[in-house]
Amino acid sequence: MEVVSADPSTPFLQVANQVLVAVGLTLSTACLAMRLYTKSLILRKFWWDDVCLIFAWTLSIGTQATILHGYTFGGIGRHFNELSPETVDTLLKVILAAAVIYIPCLAFAKLSLLMLYYSILNTSQEWVYSIYIIAFVISGYSLALALALIFACNPIQKGWDISIPPGVGSCINRPGVYLATAVSNTLSDVILILIPIRVVWGLQMRLIQKLGVVAMFCIGCLTIITSILRLATLWPLVTTSDVSYKLALASVFINIEANFIIICASLPYLRQLTRHHKPKCCIHHRSNRNVQAVRSLPSWVSPQDDTETV
Q1: pTM of the model
Q2: Could you tell me the pLDDT band of residue 24, with boundaries at 50, 70 and 90?
Q3: Where are the chain's structural domains?
Q4: CA 278/CA 257 separation, integer angstroms
Q5: What are phi and psi of 138, to 5 degrees?
Q6: Topology of 12-276 in CATH?
Q7: Which of 72, 62, 71, 73 is nearest to 97 (CA)?
Q8: Do the Cβ atoms of 60 and 132 come closer than 8 Å?
């Protein structure tokens, strides 16, 4: 397999991706380990949301490894007309593999968050049904988009084998599918942020507590920002013929988002970990009028420990 050097005009993008993967994976792995430690050993509430996040983390590693492979052997960051036929084949395989791995990565991360919502917001059947519907939609479009990319061409290998003559077989509009993937994931990110805000705002809690809980959920806004940036960088890929060159910038935001989704899903448990090992670092307040609201929230949101009598 031919090793392709970085484009002299944009060598920083390859270095940036390598640094982002190294730093991002270190942070996301540490955050996931913190979450699993807190859920399993402190809260003793290891559940399916944790399993889904482990799957998402595994697929996140696969996505980033595939992109780095594309830089080394697939010509990402170089102009398309400079690539050999062998490199073009590798590039097209990398693009397909990264997308097919990344779609379920995002889906598992979002299903993990929905399971968390289910454990918190099951105060009414209305919200339970809403969570079921959103989970079904996310699972459905993720499966549909992944299958659409895998079977985009007939024969299948036409999707990456440029030796197949143009008149043999056919392909659907694959750039459109990639764009649909980015759009659908961005919209679902927004929905997942909006779901809990209405419920939390209706609880009988002090304003400062409401703002704190909403802020905790809005940590996920970081993933919305990266999703929008990824969408903005993927848009030029729909019309350009220089895919390998344009993909270099898009891959930066893919690698950022791939780690952010794990970090953002794990950070809410940092407070519970701190309260367990450094209880003096957390100041607890009591109020008779918000007791019921506090008890309706999970232990990592509640201002009291599970064992504290209110």
Answers
A1: 0.84
A2: very high
A3: 12-276
A4: 31
A5: -60, -45
A6: Rhopdopsin 7-helix transmembrane proteins (1.20.1070)
A7: 62
A8: no
